[in-house]
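quick one before i forget lol
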Amino acid sequence: VNERAAPPPPVPGPQAMYGPGSSAVYGRPGGAGAGAGPEVPPARLSEVKMVSFGSAEGGNASKVSKGSTVYTDSPNYLPPNSFASAKVIVGVDAAAGVNSQTDPLPVVLRVTGPARSVLQNGKLLTTKIQGCLINGAARGELSSEKVYVKLQKMTCPQPGGRYAVSEVKGFIAFGGKTGVRGRVVSREGSLVSQAFIAGLVGGIGKGFAANSNAFLQGTNVQVNGKRQQLGIGDIAQGGVGNGVGEAGDMVSKYLIERAEQYQPVIEMPTGVDVEIVFLEGVYVRN
């Protein structure tokens, strides 16, 4: 039995990588010794794979919607929640009745200082609006004895003698509170007293006329079938009583209607220093 000898272990170096008989041709393809052994194809050392990290949208997570934050560095932008001092140049006597709430009265103010907004590094950021004019709609409220004003439009000067008109939203504050407290003027008290006196006189007249009416509507018939006739005094008493009663009722009704027209008003005088608060941002100039 012929025993085959075990092949020797591979020698480290080019022979182990490229096969037997490759030491002479390592680094010199086609050189001497290339035909010393059978040709062995070179082994494949590694394989490069491309990995993509992009993936399609999936999952159950909800997207965050785009916010509405406004960024600007314009010195002519008046941010929300800014406040400025102003002076009332056209005041108002605001009616405090129920019907007056749907028909507010106009007021005009002049801004006397810059608009102050947020505090940054210990310094207030301001917007120059001194000298601007602002109009608003005023209404009175009797329970608080105040006049409340909603701002509407603001007119500011521009370089070159031009003007810039902006729609603004805000309110007026006085003494750290919303609204301006004023003096309540009520003039319907005397009319109510007069209406009471007229109604009292009308009631007395109806009382005098009651006797004559009862006599006429009664069943006091004599034997001969004739109704007893009234005397001159009874007729005069009934006529005067009815006349006074109807006149008193008419005068009382007229005075009550006049008293309803004399609704109480709240005064907001001219020259009062107030604070203006802006609720929305706006560009006051180009």
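fyi Helices lie at 14-18, 189-217, 232-261.
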